[in-house]
Amino acid sequence: MLRINSKWKETKETLLKKAIESPQRRVRERFMCLFLIASGLPAVEVGKLIGRNRMTVAAWVNRFNERGPKGVTPLYRGKSRRILTDEELEKLKRAVRRSPRYSGFEKVRWNMNLLVTYIEREFGKRVRQSTVRGYLHQLGLSAKSLRRRRKRVSESS
Fold it and tell me: What confidence tens digit (pLDDT) does each residue in 97-115 have?
């Protein structure tokens, strides 16, 4: 059974107070979870009450027990800033619509590794493949569309 570590000197009442007063919704949810655990409810019941998996509840309690109230603050802080500017995105869009050969590569079709290399070479910025996928999505393109073969126009007239 999960228990709240007493070394942080938190009582049920202080946990409930923090759950009510916290400005962040996610922190409120986690303190409420801690309050319910401190009240004697098992993780399975707490999970059902707040709509979370029991393993998530256990992870929050363990993180609190290790780091105290600071451990309840989410590690993820929202969307990260964009790496490429609007002008660079436009240049990327133009490049992707043409063969990689126009950009100095020996390949016939674009792939994620090639786009990562292109961005690093053209803009001097390192990005991950997942970031490139996000940029393609923003531009109305997809990784799948990079693999499609362009239909050749026959010159029969």
Answer: 999 999 999 999 999 999 9
**Contact 112/93 with Cβ under 8 angstroms?**
no
| CA-based torsion, 123, 125, 131, 132: positive or negative | positive
What's the gap between Cα 21 and its chain centre? 27
What is the C-alpha to C-alpha distance for residues 124 and 115, in angstroms, rounded to an integer?
13
Residue 19 predicted with pLDDT over 90:
yes
From residue 61, give the alpha-carbon distance in Å to each of 47, 69, 94.
12, 10, 50
Q: What is the pLDDT of residues 70-88, one digit of tens each?
A: 999 887 766 667 899 999 9
DSSP secondary structure, 87-156, as one string: HHHHHHHHHHTS-GGGGT-S-SS--HHHHHHHHHHHH-----HHHHHHHHHHTT--HHHHHSPPPPPP--
**Tens of pLDDT, residues 129-140:** 999 999 999 998
CA of residue 120 relative to chain centroid, distance: 22
pTM for the model stands at 0.53
Cβ count within 10 A of residue 46: 24
